[in-house]
Amino acid sequence: MIEARAWLQALKPYDPHELPWRVKLDANENPHPFPAPVLAEMLATLSTGLFQRYPDATASQLRVELAAYCGVEADQILLGNGSDEILHLVCQAYVGPGRQAVYGGPSFAMYAINTLATGGTPVEVPLDEEFNLELAPLLEQAQQPATGAVFICTPNNPTGNLVGRDEIIQVLERTEALVVVDEAYYEFCGQTVVDLLPRYPQLLILRTFSKAFGLAGLRVGYALGNRELIRELHKVRQPYNLNAFSQLAALTALRHRELFVQQIETILKDKEELSRELAEIAGVKKVWPSAANFLLVEFDRPAQAVAAALAERGILVRFLGHPRLTNCLRITVGTMEENRLLMANVKEVLAK
Question: Is 21 in the same domain as 110?
Fold first, then answer.
């Protein structure tokens, strides 16, 4: 049997760490019940034609309403089967064999995975001691002729900190590469660089319905960019890549976004309480500040064992496995009840 392409030998499939659970705080999902009015409207709109026919190939109505939400034009938007698919399209179009993708690390694992999957070389520039971008070495790599894309995640996953607007502008000013600003957690922090799109044709912004809008199970992500850039990405996009039900769900959620704003406000309030109380637990060394819906928690011991002990109790948190994060776990902010159960079990695990 023929072997897979040589560059895949260095690639490990993404592991979602699926385990039985009673509290799931490992994937940065919205923990609150999906709003009943939104679900009711979705179900009332269903028709058999939704399933019999291929979906709108470009999600035209969703793009129109997203354009109003984001402050761009509809033809500046590309929809994807989650923002993961758009990352893959970026790597297909702008990275690939002979090119590299640059990002500050630790960061979102899919930057390296998609780069490797398309035959490119991932280049991780270490973040500083406070997990901020080291701008000089990042720019050095961004300016290399082989650099096809620079990925900037803000707030950064898994560290939770924001990347400064001035830093993003410096990168845009000093590289010819595509600059992808991942704003997956935009709704939790309110910081965006959408207004920079007219000035920088190589800027692409990623967002998702998986976090704030509670649609992780339906996989809806989108990109914002200049028209020429969006057209290039359409060339490698699969036809009918976003199914009809996901389009309907995202459109309905967007039209009722005030209900999700209420949930976001609750999550942010609960995050502050969770951060304070975790920091008081013996064995917790530091809870890092976060502008997203999760916390990076540093322990006084290897964190993988802490995660395993919590998993045995049915509580899932995320051990990242990055060399810089051996004593850290990323913990999603849950409901108040989930957070309390988490803290009680963390106390018991660390006391042993």
Answer: no
pLDDT at residue 14 above 90? no
DSSP string across 151-184:
EEESS-TTT-PPPPHHHHHHHHHH-SSEEEEE-T
Helix then strand count (H, E) for the chain reads 13, 12
Q: pLDDT value at position 6? A: 82
Kindly tell me the burial class for residue 272, based on how many C-beta atoms sit within 10 Å of its own C-beta (0-12, 13-18, 19 or more): exposed
Contact 208, 220 (CB under 8 A): yes
Structural domain tally of the chain?
2
Residues 69 and 213 in one domain: yes
- For residue 160, the enclosing domain spans 38-255
Look up residue 102 and give its DSSP letter: E
For the segment 163-222, what is each residue's pLDDT rounded down to a tens digit?
A: 999 999 999 999 999 999 999 999 999 999 999 999 999 999 999 999 999 999 999 999
Q: What is the pTM of this model?
A: 0.96
Measured torsion, CA atoms of residues 266, 272, 273, 276, in degrees rounded to the nearest 10: 170
Query: Are 19 and 63 found together in one domain?
Result: no
Residue tagged 């910081």 (tokens): 191
- In the chain, what's the furthest Cα-to-Cα distance? 58
Position 261 pLDDT exceeds 90: yes
* Integer angstrom CA distances of residue 123 from 32, 112, 129, 138, 220: 37, 8, 19, 9, 27
What does the alpha-carbon distance between residue 20 and residue 16 come to, in Å, rounded to a whole number?
12
pLDDT tens-digit profile of 289-311?
A: 999 999 999 999 999 999 999 99
Residue at which a domain ends, from 198, 220, 255: 255
pLDDT attached to residue 16: 75
Which residue shows structure tokens 């019999």?
52
User: 282: Cβ–Cβ under 8 A, 6 or more apart, which residues?
Assistant: 347, 350, 351
Inform me whether the pLDDT recorded for 17 exceeds 90.
no
Last residue of a domain, one of 222, 255, 288: 255
Residue type, 310: L
Distance in angstroms (rounded) separating the CA atoms of residues 84 and 298: 27
